[in-house]
Write a structure and sequence with these properties.
single chain, 266 residues, alpha+beta, Jelly Rolls, Arc Repressor Mutant, subunit A, 2 domains, six-stranded antiparallel β-sheet, four-stranded antiparallel β-sheet, 9 helices, 10 strands, 39% helix, globular
Length: 266
Amino acid sequence: MDKANYFMHIPVMTRQPLRSKGPQVDIFLGAFDIVSKWGKPVLRNSYWRCYLPITGGASLRLSNKTWPMRINEVIIIPPDCPLQGDAETPFTLYYAHFNCSIRLRKSVVYTAPGDPLIRAALDEASSRQSERLLGMAMLQLVSYALISIPERDMQQPITDDRTALAFRIMKENLHTRLDNRDLARLLNLSEASLLRLFRTTIGRSPRKEHLRLRLNHAAELLRNTGESIDRIAEACGFWDRNHFTRVFTQEWKIPPARYRHSSTTL
């Protein structure tokens, strides 16, 4: 493969996510990179990541566990995984950033043996600098990665109508704070019944879940738009920039400005 093709960032499937009777998948970035230096934390993100190293020399660390990034081994990183990356020498990899409707019981790193046919499709797309081919190859890679996650680690999809309606209301109100009492009233439930429902189906309170959705939305705006941090704070229902920065930093372990600067990394 020509060295000129070693750096390739292509937005993939930015308009219409893949939708079927199974999981919904939206791949918004597919890339082929040579990484010359890697020692900063791989930030915890609101989206999924999938890596396919094609040279060695790098590793990932979560808490006290380290995963060597083996050549042609697929690495799947769910949302909310705060990983540290490390590499003493340059390495090359394919990677995808995507959103997915699959819900896991916990955020841990998964690995799977690489598929030679998928690797060949990625190499062909990269060598030809074809956005269309890379998009299809990345879809193959992400689908293969998701299939390799053990079913026992997946949570059941939300089927309770009241919980689904609550999520729809929360997503329609990302611009404001929505407390438990307000949401209970909109669902025609008592506050105690609402809390019991969320403990059973989600494992978190409605208030905490709505805050998580607002912060994830803020992260997406930081990552994908040029809006000022003040405007993003207002758009996501925070009192002001200082309030937003404090809450975002508590949740993401990094201030919004630094998150925006580093969110285009691996």
